[in-house]
């Protein structure tokens, strides 16, 4: 008991984050996300796309060399001609590069959505003076997290470099013969090797990113932990919010009203006032010691109860004093009070007699 009290007053964060705390941190953009996953997926999809797309850059390079050595060589290099030449090259390069950039951007968006879902957190991009504080920046550079990131980066460089060297070594004969190929054949050999290195490196980085994602989620859970005092304060604030209380009461009333309306078709009789009040009664001598109120309402709700009774052929009996007494003196699921037994019994006897007469006439 003493240790629990010490934890409470010391503010030690031992409790898991509440749903509200998770929602608040998510609104601030604080979500468990691995940038390594995004980077690896972007590299993988882009290099796979380049395998399919390789012919387009090849055609562009071929046309560029042709234009350079055949058409541009005959130009008089004035300012206008030079600007026109560069504009044409830039436009053509844009047409070639834009699809690659779009694939990379779309992959990055999808990778982020897979990790954190749809999230718009404008607070993340708000300017904060603390972000340009040199002291805090210095602390970040020499923090334990920065050291871990440095080790991770060095490990990636070594592993990816080793992988790339291994692939180049496997195709060393083709590389040595590269000078004997024509331009297009040489381009396709280099493109194939580049694509293979890119895809293999991306898969390796993706495998290495899985532990990072696990760590990011573990670290996020640790960062958003709460103390017992925080949990208690949050609960008090939520309970004390009039809007939340009102919403809860309204929701509870709606659910209770829905359940009540589902029970009304099971009633034996509905006693009315005749328009302002309606009380639905049910009696089963095998399971009940007294008739039970299974629904009641006033004004519009009374109208709905009468409508349901009419639709289900339930007897409606007008008895103003009894309807008002039942409405004021009972709640839904209550048994009829003893002082109203006689009046209710007379009504039920009347209803049962009508039902018997109807059955006899039907026979």
From TrEMBL:
Residues 9-31 are annotated as: Disordered. The keyword Protein transport applies. Coiled coil: none annotated. Residues 12-22 have a biased composition (Basic and acidic residues). It comes from the Bacteria. Pfam families: Bac_export_2. Required for formation of the rod structure in the basal body of the flagellar apparatus. Together with FliI and FliH, may constitute the export apparatus of flagellin. The gene is flhB. It is a multi-pass membrane protein. It is found in: Cell membrane. The chain crosses the membrane at residues 37-56, 89-121, 142-168, 188-215. Keywords: Bacterial flagellum biogenesis, Bacterial flagellum protein export, Cell membrane, Cell projection, Cilium, Flagellum, Membrane, Protein transport, Transmembrane, Transmembrane helix, Transport. Belongs to the type III secretion exporter family. Its main location: membrane. This is Flagellar biosynthetic protein FlhB.
